[in-house]
Amino acid sequence: MAGEPQADCLFCKIVAGEVPATVVRQTETTVAFRDINPQAPTHVLVIPKAHYPNAAALAAAEPRLAADLLREAGEVAAQEKVDAYRTVLNTGSGAGQTVFHVHAHVLAGRGLEWPPG
Ligand code: 5GP
Ligand code: ZN
């Protein structure tokens, strides 16, 4: 069923506490934890506890949960005391997605040039 935990999903295992992570914030519906391979001084991943493969699938199935994810990205930035940050939602392996449980990257603390390339 949509949103149910997937046995082979790394981020479902982090939600379940089966894989350790440095959790920085948690709500009823989301978890935010530090990326294991940070690309910036602040690099936090925000995920819904429910499993959806990407942002569009999440928004189509549970729009309020998609809003929770984006709101939490802002809360992470506030907690990290950064005034500018970039939120990245990769979809598809061609775009660099390697974990197929939707996650928002929150990147901050270094120059974030635009366009990103
Ligand atoms: P993607 O490439 O799918 O957009 O992002 C996946 C992110 O998950 C990568 O930035 C990668 O460093 C991170 N990641 C992969 N495995 C783990 C892990 O076991 N723990 C944590 N905290 N991050 C992970
Ligand atoms: Zn999952």
TrEMBL record:
Task: Give start and end of each HIT domain.
Answer: 10-117
Report the superkingdom from the record: Bacteria
Q: Which InterPro entries does the UniProt entry name for this protein?
A: Histidine_triad_HIT, HIT-like, HIT-like_sf
SUPFAM superfamilies, per database record:
HIT-like
Tell me where the sequence motif Histidine triad motif sits in this chain.
101-105
Q: Which CDD domains match?
A: PKCI_related
Q: Which Pfam families match?
A: HIT (PF01230)
**Protein name per UniProt:** Histidine triad nucleotide-binding protein
Q: Which organism is it from?
A: Streptomyces durbertensis
